[in-house]
Amino acid sequence: MRRKTKLIHGGISEDPATGAVSFPIYQVSTYKQEGVGGHKGFEYSRTGNPTRNALEELIKDLEGGEAGFAFGSGMAAMTAVMMLFNSGDHVILTDDVYGGSFRVMTKVLNRLGIDSTFVDTTDLENIKREIRANTKAIHLETPTNPLLKITDIKAVAKLAKEHNLLTIVDNTFSTPYWQNPIELGADIVLHSATKYLGGHSDVVAGLAVVNSKELAEELHFIQNSTGGILGPQDSWLLIRGMRTLGIRLEEMESNTAAIVAFLQGHSAVKKVFYPGLETHPNHELAKRQTRGFGGMVSFDVGSAENADRLLSKVKYFTLAESLGAVESLISVPARMTHASIPAERRAELGITDGLVRISVGLEDIEDLLEDLAQALE
Ligand SMILES: *Cc1c(COP(=O)(O)O)cnc(C)c1O
């Protein structure tokens, strides 16, 4: 099965009981047993629900893993995965990770004794330097948010294996349509399905895929024990959104290429960050590792004032957090998605006050370009 076909026919794409071509919403908490323990595979919906199961099978197929798991948000998925570790363990993460990932590691999981170090994972030497006796995993986000740096998943996974560490990849920005971390050697893939997978700004959800039976058993135990599951309605919405992921991403990427070209030629724009640009430091790696450069682009307009002026003038770019949906969104990471990262650290990372991030949607490209042109005047 090719990729667009798999989005539609992968997983459990129809209901075996009725033949319904849209998998039904099993709005149910418990299941009748024919004698104690005599059930049809479902006992209680925290442990397993048919609609959630259909979604979990779909993401498993798309990522090419052993098992998939659906959670109430991307952060719930990440937290559950971090529960694989114990007090005293250490995890190395990409330095410009999603603000919420930084926060859960440094403000919540640290209290449970899970220690973390953040490094620029685009350079393997930085990771090597931080591997300690108690290091258990390397968590990568690639491309990163908002600077769109690319880490070599294959090289990191190889290093991780040599040291008996797990490789975890947050694949939110690329999705399995563009990038398959498990094929490149990763052990666990994470998603904020709130973004491209859902794709319509109408559901908050998280997914995890693991590549081995042992990890599948452990993560199912954690999912069932801690209970941060996705409900059947949201599971259904996510399946429905994922069916059009391929055509959405193709169109978004072509819109993004046009916007990048426009921004590059504009005098009010100091710098454009996009892995599809030949001048991007990780361009060759991006070409090798992913099938698409994505629909996110960041650019620097020089100051917070310039950014505010732009934000107040755009009509078709909605000022909002989040990304990956049909409507184009615009944000200033320093004061929005990355506000939970301390100012000094933001400065170190290059997340300046004039940095603007856009998530390119599915509007007509002519409208998007005209809108940016008038707003940047
Ligand atoms: C949004 C996001 C998350 C968190 O996901 P939620 O669904 O908001 O909990 C994690 N990683 C990345 C890269 C994200 O963009």
Automatic annotation (TrEMBL):
Enzyme Commission identifier(s): 4.4.1.8
Record protein name field: Cystathionine beta-lyase
Modified residues (N6-(pyridoxal phosphate)lysine): 195
Protein family: Belongs to the trans-sulfuration enzymes family.
TM region(s), chain numbering: none
Entry keyword Lyase: yes
Keyword annotations of the record: Lyase, Pyridoxal phosphate
A Gene Ontology term for the protein's cellular component: cytoplasm
PROSITE patterns in the cross-refs: CYS_MET_METAB_PP (PS00868)
Superkingdom: Bacteria
Biological process, per Gene Ontology: cysteine biosynthetic process via cystathionine; transsulfuration
